[in-house]
């Protein structure tokens, strides 16, 4: 199975002087020799010349692992140039050279001497096979052939500072990649995974500081995601990464500051291309926090509803307990007094129960029941309040007037 790889040379060393064709570059794409993960023989390089075909794209920077999986076809935003003359073998170096046409938006940048002297070019290609062998007095992986060139990319600098840079193996597909500054993230990702893969979680490099040699990574498992910090060293080949010191758990803090040009004190706005990696990380974190906040709001709302339902059930239960106890008191006091309350009178007594500390005030209620029982036993009286008995017909009749205001007797119908 073909094995993807990248191989880099300095753009300045690759020859950035324009030819007679105005605006074109003559670039040396690759030369024979050892990379950090394999040896490219002159024969392999010579056979690969036709792979650098007319129309091959050249982009700014290699894609990260995430970008490669999300957009394997690359982005037109990063397309900087195309090969317009197929690669040929340079007899002086044994490398492959070809003519490149920068696209209009980047022509001035790519033909600038200062820019050219500080960047390199790196191929993204596939190897037919990689075996272990010996070459030039050194034993190691031998790249037996190149089968396809996907692109040639402009990178920040050559990893070893020479025409042929180190090659990195991909942890995901046993791929190989050349060690350029843009690959440092992938190098750290592999080192962190190798060191912390036994933590029963998913490990992801969040960021790193190349000057301080510090890497920040996250570990996600069954519990909450944790962010850690650890120092690292880079090998002499500028490829091998070794984690040093003890990892320290940290928390991320985002700070926004004005952006100014080196020759200006006036804050300017960064372009979307300049800040794209940072924006993608912040948007992902913002989306995660927004989703979490939404779940918190939903849970809080659900909690409020459940508490209200709980309070209603408690109050209903307390009301039932008070009512049942009140009925018992009415029955007991009526029996003791030798009276019998009607259903309507009983309902009247318990319609407005006295409450003390959330419970029935039995002393006050017993007093009320006793008063009504005594009143019920007295002739011509009934239960006070809601359950009071109506006056008898005889009593009502004695209170009726028998004459009109003029002294004439009144006649009662039906008498």
Give a verbal description of the structure.
By secondary structure, this protein is α+β, with helices and mostly antiparallel strands. It folds into 3 domains: 1-179, no CATH class; 182-253, Roll (Nuclear Transport Factor 2, Chain: A), CATH 3.10.450; 317-398. Helices cover 32% and strands 30% of the residues. It contains 9 helices and 19 strands. Strands 1-8-9-4-3 form a 5-stranded mixed β-sheet. The chain has a 4-stranded antiparallel β-sheet with strand order 2-7-6-5. Helix 6 packs parallel to helix 8. The protein is rod-shaped, with a radius of gyration of 46 Å. Residues 289-316 form a coiled coil. Residues 389-405 have a biased composition (Polar residues). Residues 371-415 are annotated as: Disordered.
Task: Output the helix-strand order.
Answer: EEEEHEHEEHHEEEEHEEEEEEHHEEHH
Number of helices: 9
Number of domains: 3
Q: Can you give the helix content as a percent range? A: 25-40%
**What structural category arises from helix and sheet content?**
alpha+beta
Could you give the count of β-strands?
Answer: 19
Which percent band covers the strand fraction? 25-35%
The radius of gyration is 46 Å
The major pleated sheet works out as: 5 strands, mixed
Shape: rod-shaped
The span between the termini is: 122 Å
Mean pLDDT: 76
What kind of assembly state do the chains in view correspond to? single chain
Q: Name the strands of the widest sheet in spatial order.
A: 1-8-9-4-3
**What low-confidence regions span 5 or more consecutive residues with pLDDT below 50?**
12-20, 159-179, 268-280, 385-397
């Amino acid at each position: 199975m073909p094995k993807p790889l990248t191989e880099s040379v300095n753009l300045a060393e690759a020859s950035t002087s324009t030819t007679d064709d105005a605006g074109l570059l003559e670039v040396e794409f690759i030369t024979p020799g050892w990379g950090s993960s394999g040896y490219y023989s002159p024969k392999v390089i010579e056979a690969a010349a036709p792979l650098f075909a007319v129309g091959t794209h050249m982009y700014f920077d290699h894609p990260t692992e995430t970008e490669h999986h999300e957009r394997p076809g690359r982005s037109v935003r990063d397309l900087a140039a195309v090969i317009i003359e197929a690669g040929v073998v340079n007899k002086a170096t044994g490398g492959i050279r070809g003519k490149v046409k920068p696209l209009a938006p980047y022509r001035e940048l790519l033909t600038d001497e200062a820019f050219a002297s500080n960047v390199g070019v790196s191929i993204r290609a596939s190897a037919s096979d990689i075996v272990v062998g010996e070459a030039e007095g050194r034993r190691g992986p031998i790249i037996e052939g190149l089968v396809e060139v996907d692109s040639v990319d402009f990178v920040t600098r050559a990893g070893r500072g020479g025409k042929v840079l180190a090659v990195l193996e991909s942890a995901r597909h046993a791929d190989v990649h050349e060690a350029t500054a843009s690959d440092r993230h992938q190098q750290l990702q592999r080192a962190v995974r190798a060191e912390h893969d036994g933590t029963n979680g998913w490990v992801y490099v969040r960021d790193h500081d190349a000057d301080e040699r510090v890497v920040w990574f996250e570990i996600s498992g069954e519990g909450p995601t944790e962010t850690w910090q650890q120092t690292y060293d880079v090998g002499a080949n500028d490829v091998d990464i070794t984690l040093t010191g003890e990892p320290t758990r940290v928390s991320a803090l985002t700070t926004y500051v004005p952006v100014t040009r080196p020759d200006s004190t006036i804050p300017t706005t960064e372009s979307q291309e300049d800040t794209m990696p940072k924006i993608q990380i912040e948007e992902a974190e913002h989306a995660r926090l927004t989703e979490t906040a939404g779940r918190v709001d939903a849970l809080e709302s659900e909690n409020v509803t459940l508490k209200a339902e709980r309070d209603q059930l408690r109050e209903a239960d307390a009301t039932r307990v008070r009512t049942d106890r009140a009925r018992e008191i009415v029955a007991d006091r009526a029996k003791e007094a030798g009276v019998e309350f009607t259903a309507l009178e009983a309902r009247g007594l318990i319609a407005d129960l006295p409450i003390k500390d959330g419970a029935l005030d039995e002393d006050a209620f017993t007093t009320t029941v006793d008063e009504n029982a005594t009143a019920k036993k007295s002739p011509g009286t009934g239960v006070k309040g809601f359950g009071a008995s109506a006056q008898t017909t005889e009593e009502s009749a004695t209170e009726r007037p028998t004459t009109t205001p003029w002294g004439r007797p009144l006649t009662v119908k039906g008498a």
